[in-house]
Amino acid sequence: MEPIIQIRDLRKFFGKKQALYGINLDIMPGQIIGYIGPNGAGKSTTVRILAGLDERFEGTVSIKGIDVKENPLAVKRIIGYIPELADLYDVLTPMEFLMLIGRLHDLEDQQIEERATRMLDFLGLKDQLHQRMDTFSKGMRQKVLLVSGLLHNPEIIFMDEPLSGLDANAVILVKEIILRLVEQGKTVIYCSHNMDTVEKISDRIILIAEGKVVADGTFQELKRNEGDTLEKLFSQLTGQPDFDQLAEGFTQTFNP
Amino acid sequence: MNKLLLGLLSLFSGFWRRMDVNPVHLRNILAVKLKMDGRRKTAFNYRQSAQKKEVKGQDILMMFMMSMMGLLFMLPILLFKQSGTGMFILLSGWMSLLTLTLISDFTDVLIDVRDNYILLPRPVTGKTLAISRILHVFFYLVKLMIPFSLPGMIGIGIKFGLFPVLLFVVLILLSVLLTIFVVNLLYLIMLNLLSPRKFKEIINYFQIAFYALVFLGYQILPRMMDFRSQGDVNLLEKIYLWPLPSVWLAYIWEIAFDFDQPWTAYVLAGLGLLTPFLAVYLVTTVLSKNFSQKMFSIGEGGGAESAPESKGDLLQSPRKSWSSITGVWFCASKLERAIYAFTWKLTGRSRDFKLKYYPNLIMLPVYFVFAFVFPMTRSESDGLAALRQSNIYLFGFYFSMIILLSGLTMLQFSERYKASWFYRAMPLAQPGLILTGAFKAIIVKYYLPIYLLITLFSGFVWGWHILDDALLALFTILALTTGIATLTNHVLPFTRSWDEATRSNIGFTLLTMFCAGLFGLFHYFIANMGWVIWILIPTAAALFYLAMYQYRKTSWKQVKWE
Fold this sequence. Notes:
By secondary structure, chain A is α/β, with parallel strands linked by helices. Chain A has one domain (about 5-255): Rossmann fold. Chain A contains ten helices and ten strands. In chain A, a hairpin with a 2-residue loop joins β4 and β5. The longest helix of chain A is centred in the C-terminal third of the chain and has 16 residues, at about 170-185. The termini of chain A are far apart. Chain B starts with a helix and ends in a 10-residue tail after the last helix. Chain B is built from 26 helices and no strands. Chain B is globular, with a radius of gyration of 27 Å. In chain B, about 35% of the residues are buried. Chain B is mostly helical. In chain B, α10 runs antiparallel to α13 (about 245-255). Classes of the chains: A alpha/beta, B mainly alpha. The interface between A and B is large, with 39 and 36 residues.
């Protein structure tokens, strides 16, 4: 089977500062890839490059055989991107916003309306379809954002903290949706700081630290002992100090 | 200045304690609020804030501008034979200015819901919070009051002596109290009647209306006053002006100089003396308490579950809206239509866009009538006939281009500019269609209706033979603006912060205005040559089409993001 995403020697610079140090990855279709790493490790930078949002990088990246740098438009047609902490035009209603997004993906108005209504209905926003989003909670906006990334039925979906702001029930639902999407043959690149979720839903976990891949494999392959959790592995692999000691030091501030 | 005000506040620590207000908390809250004011965009410091620097001389700049205004408003007192009328004009101007400032620059402070989350969870008494809010507004106004009243104090001191100076200061103070009361009352009434979202929308329209009203005042009042012949008219005697608080206060001034006044003067002066104190009582007890409660409801009531659905929104399916109907007429591609509808909706709902653009829509036709048409009708014995013989309507047509230019320029900006991430995320091959779609929305939604209004007005005054001129001017303006936009304007709509608005494309505006002036002049000379006009109309229309065709071809390489 051919990899759906191929990354070769990916390097990224912000001015003189190097953010990515020659990343090489092959990602197979129909998988959930947990793409994790500490803050500033280069996760969002990688995803932005893969989604065709940033063409200023070194190396080659291809999605379904399409070179991202040479043909970002073709890539954008087959991917869905759900950014982290994205701003929305909150004076629009969800339907108006999704109508815009759908039209930009060349969908027919009727198709957009039907899909958006159904998707938002399942996410519990049926009654808010025609309400302006400026009164929406963070979770409600996140649901609209989620639909905006899936509306055009993409083959590959990049999700950057998609569960942010969602309540417990919505989290369960979205996780189930992700699993169903993968059952349909879609590929999901899932970035998150929530190790528990990543551990549970990912077919493969890629851990990045300081712009380099430091671990790559299934959770079973990555864990060293039977009792290991992804959270624990994450701390070990990213070289974090002893948290017990840090917490003790912090709380001792009141008793010098 | 802030230190001085805070120092004065500390002098009354005992008084605050007796009022169940914690003076330390009060001082700390106010110190932070005043510091935040210094970093906030206002009508006075917009340019400096746009450069994202904290401006040390900001207070000085504001004071200088207020002194200039004070100097201007002082003139009627010194020049008019009826000094009471002069005082009425000064106080009216001052109170309008204060109200405008409170509404336009201070609304965000008055309804700052962040207080609910930052201050309310702290161990601060409700009364301390309420008083801090009122004092914050009061301090802000005091900072305006001192420089504004200084020229008046000097002028009055020279002309009338020391006692009138003291009286003037008292009147200014009373006017400040009254203004705070009026604005508070207005907000409270609206908060009681409207949902939080509607409240914010109404405030927005109120701001736009107020800007327009002040502009109209500038145009109409001098014509009503006619300084040369009516400088000695006593406006205080006009019964229709008596509901104005500035009349009540001016009567105090009038009575101080001459006790021999009708009983109505004493009643109105009494109102002037009593109402501010009644206002203080109401503001500090009843209103401030309700205000805080209502404020909390703004912050808490933001949940969509509790927000009533707008009937219009529910009934309006995207395909039936005006933007969808006209989009089909004017846009060739799907992408262009999508951006057209998006721009149509967003411009109509973006607070900052409306605040900055809508006053232009009102002012321009008004300015055309008052600046060009009225002077003509007054200068001749048979003014209307002289007007009809002139081609002055052409000024209206070409002048209207400002609406198009300012719309096109302001289109780049948005308070939600970060939401433009989707342009990059979507598979958009031809960004030129984004530019033309947005530009067409501005033309159809804003420019054409105003142009139609000017044409209708001109048709009624000059006769319908002007229609050929209207068509030629319209196509010339459209071709010119589109042509120059094709060359210089490649910023996608809503992608820049309003903070960058001062760095907008001034070159584009000046170049277009210059060219429009040239074409307008040319049109003026050929206005009576009907056949030439009819040849030029299709030519201008064809040029407009070609310019739009070129604009549509703008590539990603030409698009400016910063």
